[in-house]
Design a protein that fits this description.
Residues 502-690 form the Alpha-L-arabinofuranosidase C-terminal domain. By secondary structure, the chain is of the alpha+beta class. It contains 10 helices and 35 strands.
Length: 700
């Protein structure tokens, strides 16, 4: 058949969406019989969880520092243990600096007790240091960036600090500094004193650069002390002073996520217990938060990242605030007294005592030899921090940070991805202590890293016996696994514990392979699997793809849902699959039957349906994992009233290996078109290799 315009095709084919912009190019002479799909509108099933589809955040792939948290200076406080000058280099220039070192002589504070000391025997324009940023600093022409620093003048006649933002030339290495490109912005700070004082100036770049660097030089000769060196964009989400990168938050918010799980992931556990994530270290004054080496920095030899650390500028308060900003339920995950079992497997001992009540904030200190009670107390204190009144010790900390109202925390996770008897013997007293004090808190428990096997079966059995509200299951597997397991939850019990599909992503090569891609094959296979989550909304209450974020120049793991560089970002095909499910989750599950008793997924056709009582629509999701167009007839059994026009949203590509990129961010992205609805038997032709969402106005 000759090519026709979308309008002409819609006129010729009543009810068939054959719009070329959607990739639906099936000929009207199609002889293949339509597959019959019956949606039982008059036999609604269980309610769909209002938080069904959400987000999983972990600080991997430079997701926080260098990503969502937009501080441009790497190692701003010189506090990285054993690597105090990481991110910094002395400027080239005939040894202009006599010495530059990190010292603890009369520091800024007890927690921020390291700082840089620069000494020059004579004045020189090269007497200074340069910060490389996180794979460079991304700055935009005309945007404003707040530079701030604590300075203290020592012996000599140093009269000021020269601040220069410039393009990178070649990168530095060890004692050899980076060479400079063109100057983007400059300022000078004067009025130095013999005591620590904070200075602030605004820089406005004259050009856009993806890889800039910050140069600091002394005016005059002598000694100058520096600490807490910051270059922070004014353009943050909600224009907050310690805000987040707006393009990334916008991608989150556009998904209308039901929840935000944070801060991970294996980051919760640490390679050892001393490297575990401790939420109490991440709140309060940003300048006083003590950084920690990131457990992903040396995990993979093929992606070694020794300069990867956590500044905790993005801490638990900011996570709660982000959840609120994007309309998502916060789901913090807490350490259960176990370091990562893929690393040291270090365990906190289980004693006979239990935490009795919240600890005072001023009594908190870093515990190098914690027992299980330490971790339980941290959980109890976290609930108080999130929900407690201003009169409570930890609630007062939240109020002091600028959030008088409670965050209304409803969920906490006990352990991330632990397994075996060591987990279960810690989970039980932990769960009981939390429930005794906060009976309305819903607890997320762990079924381990694998979706099957003896350890998985034993954990699931015991957790159900303990009446766990939510069991977290993880699966990283091939695209084929996801399609074959679309019926995974069909035979799960409808009562008792609910399922949280907490981490999943199809892998094109192998789990943890650096060659995995965010291909259309992985995304459409995940869509097929998610129809099974939706059809079992009485058993599955939450789902999230993982990991969420990755810097194109600094990743450790792939695939990931959203990729970015220092200036740009894009959603993968996997992102758009998650987004379409979230935007079309509906309110009530509707049973779906295929013709001749075919099972869901048979002949590579996958389907699910929901009613959206808020809009009055019936929403049908269809995955055609086939290289051919596929006609279907959707019979809306028992529908009471129908509108005349439906809306189709389609993701499709003839190339299963197709991907999105920074330069082609919408290579695979949703396309919309309307279609006619002339009866309760809605005809439609699915594009080859497509995921289609049909919204049909109708009352049930």
């Amino acid at each position: 058949m000759p090519t026709s315009s979308p309008t002409r095709l819609l006129q010729l084919a009543s009810g068939l969406a054959l719009c070329s912009t959607l990739g639906l190019t099936a000929a009207l002479g199609q002889t293949k019989p339509a597959t019959a799909i019956t949606v039982q509108v008059n036999k609604p099933g269980a309610p769909v969880s209002p938080i069904m589809y959400g987000l999983f955040f972990e600080d991997i792939n430079f997701a926080a520092d260098g990503g969502l948290y937009p501080e441009l200076v790497k190692n701003k406080s010189f506090e990285i243990q054993g690597q105090h000058f990481i991110g910094w280099n002395a400027l080239l220039g005939a040894a202009a600096l006599q010495t530059y070192t990190v010292t603890t002589d009369r520091p800024l504070s007890a927690t921020n007790n390291h700082f840089a000391r620069l000494t020059a025997a004579q004045a020189s324009p090269n007497a200074g240091i340069v910060n490389e940023g996180f794979r460079g600093m991304g700055v935009k022409q005309g945007a404003e960036y707040t530079f701030s620093v604590y300075l203290r003048r020592g012996p000599g006649n140093v009269s000021g600090l020269n601040v220069t933002l410039e393009e990178q030339g070649r990168p530095g290495s060890g004692p050899v500094a980076a060479t400079a490109g063109r100057v983007l912005a400059q300022a000078q700070i004067g009025g130095l004193t013999p005591e620590w004082k904070k200075y602030t100036v605004v820089l406005k770049p004259t050009a856009t650069a993806a890889k800039a660097q910050l140069k600091l030089t002394m005016e005059g000769a002598g000694t100058l002390d520096l600490d807490v060196v910051s270059l922070f964009p004014k353009d943050t989400w909600n224009k907050r002073e310690n805000g987040l990168r707006p393009d990334l938050v916008q991608l989150f918010k556009d998904m209308q996520p039901g929840f935000l799980r944070f801060p991970g992931g294996c980051i919760v556990e640490g390679r050892t217990l001393s490297e575990r994530y401790q939420w109490k270290e991440t709140i309060g004054d940003v300048a006083a938060r003590v950084p920690l080496i990131n457990r992903w920095n040396m995990e993979f030899k093929h992606r070694s990242t020794p300069d990867y650390y956590q500044s905790f500028g993005l801490g638990f308060f900011e996570y709660f605030q982000l959840s609120e900003d994007i309309g998502a339920e916060p789901v913090p995950i807490l350490n259960v007294g176990m370091a990562c079992q893929f690393n040291s497997s270090e365990l906190a001992p289980v004693t006979s005592t239990a935490a009795a009540g919240p600890s005072a904030p001023e009594a908190h200190s870093h515990d190098d030899d914690p027992t299980l009670e330490t971790f339980i107390q941290d959980a109890l204190d976290l609930v108080e921090f999130a929900n407690g009144p201003a009169s409570s010790p930890w609630g007062a900390k939240r109020v002091a940070m600028g959030h008088p109202a409670p965050f209304n925390l409803k969920y906490i996770g006990i352990g991330n991805e632990q397994w075996g008897p060591q987990y279960l013997e810690r989970y039980e007293p932990f769960m009981k202590a939390v429930k005794a004090k906060y009976p309305n808190i819903n607890i997320v428990s762990s079924a381990g890293p694998a979706p099957d096997g003896d350890l998985f079966d034993k954990a699931t059995k015991r957790l159900r016996e303990l009446k766990a509200e939510v069991i977290d299951e993880h699966y990283y597997a091939s695209p084929e696994w996801f399609r074959k397991n679309a019926g995974r939850y069909d035979n799960y019990p409808t009562t008792g514990s609910k399922i949280f599909a907490g981490e999943y992503a199809a892998q094109t090569v192998a789990i943890g392979s650096p060659d995995n891609k965010n291909s259309w094959d992985t995304a459409i296979s995940e869509a097929a699997f998610m129809t099974g989550l939706e059809r079992n909304a009485d058993k599955v209450t939450m789902a999230s793809y993982a990991p969420m974020l990755a810097h194109v120049d600094a990743w450790q793991w792939t695939p990931n849902m959203i990729w970015f560089d220092n200036l740009r970002s894009y959603g993968t095909p996997n992102y758009y699959v998650q987004k379409l499910f979230s935007l079309n989750k509906g309110t009530t599950m509707l049973p779906v039957q295929l013709s001749a008793g075919a099972r869901n997924g048979q002949d590579n056709l996958f389907s699910s349906a929901v009613a959206d009582d808020k809009t009055g629509d019936i929403v049908v999701k269809l995955v055609n994992y086939s290289a051919e167009a596929r006609p279907v007839t959707v019979a809306l059994q028992g529908v009471k009233k129908l509108g005349k026009t439906g809306k189709a949203t389609v993701l499709s590509s003839p190339d299963l290996n197709a991907v999105n990129s920074l330069d082609q961010p919408l290579n695979i992205a949703p396309q919309e078109a309307s279609f006619k609805v002339s009866s309760s038997n809605v005809t439609y032709t699915l594009a080859p290799n497509s995921f289609t969402v049909l919204r049909i106005p109708g009352k049930r």
